[in-house]
From TrEMBL:
Domain VOC: 7-130, 145-262
PANTHER family documented for this protein: GB|AAF24581.1, GLYOXALASE-RELATED
Pfam families: Glyoxalase (PF00903)
Protein name, as recorded: Glyoxalase
Species of provenance: Pseudohongiella nitratireducens
Amino acid sequence: MQNKHGDFVWYELQTSDIDAAKRFYGPLLEWQFSLSSAEAPRYETCLAQDNHIRQTHEVGGILELTPEMQEGGCSPAWLGYIEVDDMTQACKKLTDAGGKILMPVKSINDVGDVCVVSDPQNAPFYLICSSGAKNSLAFAHDRPRPGHCAWNELVTSDKNAAQAFYQSQFGWTQDGSMDMGDMGSYDFIRHRNMIGAMMNIPAPGLPPFWNFYFRVANIDKAVKYITDNDGTITQDPMEIPGGEFVISAQDPQGANFQLIGTRGDS
């Protein structure tokens, strides 16, 4: 089934050292890599195995930040791509609603039109109007798939305003919430399927951002791997409803990421 307007379809790591990033994420998420562009900025595609259908498919990419990009303020980070039906209309609608265009629209052969934008609270993400009818499986909404993104989480300065914005742009709707005490509610977001959640920033002074939770088979083994390979655990394993555990971490180049998985002997 072809992706729809408002779907998460791609995840991109922007990093200062693409070879080091491949060495770190490859064993952690069981990824293979394919060179997409050798010219600056260098780009590698991330491939994950889907054991259910015994196929390997693309789940994201790694972009190596050029010195000029870094001098312009870019730093290592993960960004998500959201599909749109019409790039021109989507950009106008976004700016009319208070969003910003951070990088002008760029056409990429065999990919489509892409641009970097931010919501009114300044959380950055990509828009993409894909060429062709290819269906992305990068976000595993239907079943657990190791090496795939399992959850998309917006941490923002104004959750209610953010929900109204994303609903107006992509048709996302709130579907339940979880009380987090002094931190407020954790509001679940649906777009045909459950895609993630939104919450207010827990500490003052932090800029809004998106978190992306990638699935691993064993969260404890992942924690050990991260600490043994110059990564940093920024949130220890925390149990979530359903019995799985999540962590937050930082890769050796400083990009934040999240993992979800079970504990035990798996």
